[in-house]
Amino acid sequence: MRVHNPDFKKQESEVAALIEVPLQDVMSDANLVTRQLTTSYAREITVPAFHLEGHIIWGATAMMLNEVKSLLKPILLT
Fold first, then answer.
1. 62, exposed or middle or buried, with CB in 10 Å at 0-12, 13-18, 19+?
2. Is 63 helix (H, G, I), strand (E, B) or coil?
3. No. of helices (H) and no. of strands (E), the chain
4. Fewest C-beta in 10 Å: which of 1, 16, 45, 61?
């Protein structure tokens, strides 16, 4: 079976870096953290984030990863 790796391209204005991480790192509760951030719409808010490969992943990306994690968790535990 031949595996094709997609050629990801980041949107420079939105993404600092592209990183690939093992699924088990996303699934690990030890990598789910919170951070205090100031954004254009709120000051010093606490947001969920992931600490992966030395990067802090937050915002929409963290929310999507957390949703994938919650969907996969019951499947992987069976």
1. buried
2. helix
3. 2, 3
4. 1
Which stretch of DSSP H or E encloses residue 65?
helix 59-76
The answer to whether residues 36 and 44 touch, using CB atoms and an 8 Å cutoff, is yes
Contact 58, 35 (CB under 8 A): yes
Spans of the chain below 50 pLDDT: none
| Cβ neighbourhood burial of 49 (10 Å; 0-12, 13-18, 19+) | buried
Between CA 12 and CA 48 the distance in angstroms is 23
Burial class (CB in 10 A: 0-12, 13-18, 19+), 37: middle
The kind and range of the H/E element at 51 are strand 45-52
Gap between the Cα atoms of 40 and 54, Å rounded = 25
